[in-house]
Design a protein that fits this description.
The complex is a heterodimer of chains A (about 425) and B (about 400). Chain A has about 425 residues and is an alpha+beta fold. Chain A is built from 14 helices and 13 strands. In chain A, the strands form two sheets. In chain A, strands 4, 5, 6, 7, 8, 9 and 10 form a seven-stranded mixed sheet that branches. In chain A, strands 1, 2, 3, 11, 12 and 13 form a six-stranded antiparallel sheet that branches. In chain A, strand 1 and strand 2 form a beta hairpin. In chain B, a hairpin with a 2-residue loop joins strand 3 and strand 4. The relative contact order of chain B is 0.16. Classes of the chains: A alpha+beta (about 425), B alpha+beta (about 400). Chains A and B meet through helix 2, strand 4, strand 5 and helix 10 of A and helix 2, helix 7, strand 11 and helix 8 of B.
Chain lengths: ~425, ~400
């Protein structure tokens, strides 16, 4: 039976080439956009090089101090002091990586200016992030303690600065008028991974501001802001996925212990959370709630609205097509086919059409993704069509085919036999 | 005639529901795109208010541990002198972090004569700031330490937007003002042209400029330098070396203002390009769909058309009727669409001026009409070419 429907569907498709083109264009294009977007989102949210262990990691990136009475707000990244003195000493995490979010500095080679984004990190950062070392090795705890001027650079930086990506270990790179010895070269990562992205990685102890930090001798006293707000972020790696709730609980305890409401500021928020939570909180949430529900509702609504236009279009065309076949329907009805059989047949036909469109969409997506990767729009961000994206695409095809097939099929099934036979 | 057309449409209401909703949704998409484009274009057509070419910014962190005004002043004046001694340097000024295109924002708000003004950008500047950025004065003068010292009231410079909000069309320079509920009095010494500090496509808002005092050097972190045309990377490297030898224990970064402007503009343009590509393909999709449906409808009505031609209708009036039928249909959708669209200026959504929405509304209506005419024209011509004898014979 299915085989028969398939044959009919193909015959109908061939009959009206213009309509077939419109339908297939609409379906394949819509799916291409959705699949490329999914691939992009998947790349940003799923575990990828270099932090493969996102399911047992929590990230800290923002601190905010509030005075709820006066409406004062003071927020930025987190202070090194808070992360190093308290968070790094927690018991549940296996390791705590501390880093700055990258900022840029200038290097001058051969009378050319290079802008290089640098990131200060501690030593455990290298154990949490599983970087591919093309050569050399990361700096260790001892080097960090001694404030050794060593650096890990990415292959892109090596090519920019030295003109080649190999054999640069042990050479010196001058950044902002300071010489650093290259201790290793890693494969670069895309900028979208804000926690780990950098073009050159340096031990936090060589930071020029580090010795002048508030609280060290000779500098003004520690204020509340200095204690919590700074330029750093952290990643907390639990021993296993099951340990994550315990880690969250310990962190909440710690935060309560460290900060007591005071006259200047009565609320402190520093969240340790997963990547998805952080993203949702940034865009849709606030300090009290993550806004994950709102984010997914918004995304679903957006996809729905985006699908709406092609769906209406497809419904329009489907009705036109079906009305053209009214004599065929009339004959089948006259010979006793039930409405349900007919609806079933048209739905299947329509789903075959959408799947065909989906196939073209898949080819178009691969071309779009290939072009995106080739054009190097976001350096080091290489999209790929993986299984997740494919399943999502297939699901979309089915939903799309179903949505755009139901109404025309229902209209058709209610057609009166006499009129159907009379038309032509 | 119109009544007759309405009757025809009403008789086919079931078939037309989808056509109507398709037009409605495309109208919504076009209205969104048009609003965005009109808004950006209107902002783009205004002057940028500064000369950003060959202006470099240097960011640093105050490395001094002292709070003493004299030693701070001595240290930073030394740096200024050393920079000015370089042949390629034209002008040097210290600035708060929120200089144009920096992405950093500092705002405040006050009410003046019961008129609540919020947010207002505030900039901390020096005498040479105007020269470095080439800002244009509309009235009065810029800061000048020799003259300002004579005033008992603190001087401030405001921009055109703030002037308009506070004084309307009256002159502002020379007036002494005091915000409601505040003790401090300020003397407005000049009015400058608005500066598009967030890039060429972003609106300017009200802003005022105040002078840096020597105590501010403990938290300031930016230098703006106007350089000559002969300033190249070799010179930049030299300047960077000089600055790091004079200011130790701080990160330094030199950036070029024209590049900062490009990246600021990119933040606006890239989403627009993505949005327009998607909308463009959606509309193309709709156009093909409309074309197909209209074509089919007309081929269904061959008998009717044949009859009309047989009793003497010209081919022009046939295609005219078909096109105007489609236009009438589209108008029904547009009435509904306009009802929703008009809420945007009424509720002033997203703080965009009402004029933007109105222009966008007109453009979207025009666009939809053109789209429908374009899609209906060819099928209409086809219908007009029908031979009455053949069409009637089929029946």
């Amino acid at each position: 039976m299915l085989k028969n429907y398939f044959k009919i569907a193909l015959a109908v498709l061939k009959r009206r080439k213009f309509f077939t083109f419109i339908s297939l264009f609409g379906i394949s294009f819509t799916l291409t956009i959705l699949m490329v977007t999914t691939a992009l989102i998947d790349k940003v949210l799923s575990p990828a090089y270099p932090d493969y262990r996102r399911d047992r990691s929590l990230y800290i990136s923002k601190a905010s101090l509030l005075n709820t009475k006066e409406g004062w707000y003071n927020g930025s990244s987190v202070s090194f002091r808070f992360l190093n003195d308290y968070v790094a000493k927690m018991k549940t995490p296996e390791k705590v990586g501390i880093f700055t979010f990258s900022s840029s500095a200038n290097a001058y080679v051969n009378n050319k200016k290079l802008v290089i984004e640098y990131k200060y990190t501690n030593a455990p950062f290298w154990e949490i992030a599983e970087f591919d070392f093309l050569e050399g090795k990361p700096y260790n705890e001892q080097q960090v303690q001694q404030a050794a001027r060593v650096a890990v650079i990415t292959d892109r930086t090596a090519t920019k600065y030295f003109g080649r990506a190999e054999g640069v270990t042990g050479k010196y790179i001058e950044l902002d008028n300071v010489n650093y010895r290259v201790s290793g070269v890693v494969k670069g990562i895309p900028r979208s991974n804000r926690n780990f992205y950098g073009e050159i990685y340096l031990p936090y102890s060589v930071s020029k501001n580090f010795n002048g930090m508030a609280g060290t001798t000779g500098v003004r006293d520690l204020s509340v802001q200095d204690r919590f707000i700074g330029k750093y972020g952290a990643v907390l790696l639990a021993r296993s996925e099951a340990d994550v709730p315990a880690m969250r609980a310990e962190y909440a305890q710690l935060l309560k212990k460290v900060f007591k409401p005071q006259t200047e500021y009565d609320k402190l928020y520093i969240h340790a959370e997963s990547i998805v939570e952080g993203l949702a909180r940034n865009i849709f949430g606030n300090n009290e709630e993550t806004g994950i529900v709102r984010m997914f509702t918004f995304a679903a609504l957006l996809v729905f609205l985006f699908l709406l236009l092609p769906t209406i279009n497809l419904v329009n065309i489907n009705i036109t097509r079906i009305m053209e076949r009214s004599s065929e329907i009339g004959v089948r009805k006259a010979f006793g086919a039930s409405s349900r059989t007919l609806v079933y047949q048209f739905l299947i036909e329509n789903i075959i059409l959408t799947l065909l469109g989906g196939l073209i969409g898949l080819v178009l997506s691969s071309i779009a993704i290939y072009m995106f990767n080739q054009a190097d729009i976001l350096p080091d961000l290489n999209l790929a069509l993986n299984l997740k994206v494919l399943v999502f695409g297939l699901l979309l095809c089915l939903v799309f085919g179903f949505l755009s097939g139901v109404y025309p099929a229902w209209r058709m099934s209610r057609m009166n036999v006499v009129y159907a036979l009379k038309a032509k | 005639m119109l009544k007759h057309l309405f009757k025809l449409i009403w008789n086919k209401r079931k078939q037309n529901v989808l056509f109507l909703s398709e037009i409605l949704v495309s109208f919504a998409v076009i209205f969104a795109v048009m609003s965005m484009l009109v808004n950006y274009y209107l902002n783009y057509s205004k002057p940028s208010g500064i000369e950003y070419e060959r202006v470099w910014s240097v960011s640093y962190r105050n490395p001094l541990k002292t709070e003493n005004r004299d030693s701070l002043s001595l240290f930073y004046e030394n740096i200024r002198r050393a920079l000015k001694a370089m042949p390629q340097v034209r002008e040097v000024t210290y600035s708060s972090a929120n200089f144009p295109y920096s992405g950093s924002v500092s705002t405040t708000g006050f009410s003046y004569k019961g008129n609540n003004l919020n947010p207002i950008n505030t900039y901390m500047v020096e005498d040479d700031y105007q020269k470095v950025l080439g800002m244009k004065l509309v009235e009065g003068r810029w800061f000048n330490s020799d003259q300002d010292r004579l005033n008992a009231v603190k001087p401030m410079v405001i921009n055109t937007s703030l002037k308009r909000a506070m004084f309307g069309d009256d002159a502002a320079a020379g007036k002494t003002v005091q915000a409601d509920d505040e003790k401090e009095r300020w003397k407005i010494i000049g009015v400058v042209e608005d500066v598009k500090a967030d890039g060429d496509y972003r609106p300017t808002g009200p802003a005022f400029y105040r002078k840096i005092d020597t105590a501010s050097f403990s938290w300031l972190g930016n230098l703006l330098i106007k350089v000559g045309p002969d300033a190249d990377a070799a010179f930049e490297s030299k300047m960077s070396k000089l600055l790091s030898s004079m200011m130790q224990n701080t990160d330094l970064e030199i950036r070029h203002m024209d590049e900062m402007r490009d990246s600021k503009n990119g933040e606006t343009i890239i989403p627009v390009i993505i949005f327009m590509t998607v909308a463009g393909f959606l509309i193309f999709n709709v156009a093909l769909g409309l074309f197909g449906v209209l074509w089919y409808n007309i081929s269904q009505r061959r008998a009717e058309i044949g009859l009309r031609m047989a009793i003497g209708a010209s081919s022009g009036s046939i295609s005219g009727q078909l096109v105007s039928e489609s236009l009438l249909l589209a108008s029904l959708s547009l009435v509904v669409g306009t009802f929703f669209a008009i809420q945007f200026p009424l509720l002033s959504v997203f703080n965009v001026p009402a004029g933007v929405y109105l222009i966008a509304l007109l453009l979207s209506i025009l666009f939809i009409y053109l789209l429908v005419i374009f899609c209906a024209f060819y099928p209409g011509r086809q219908a007009a070419a029908i031979h009455p004898a053949i069409a009637l014979h089929e029946e």
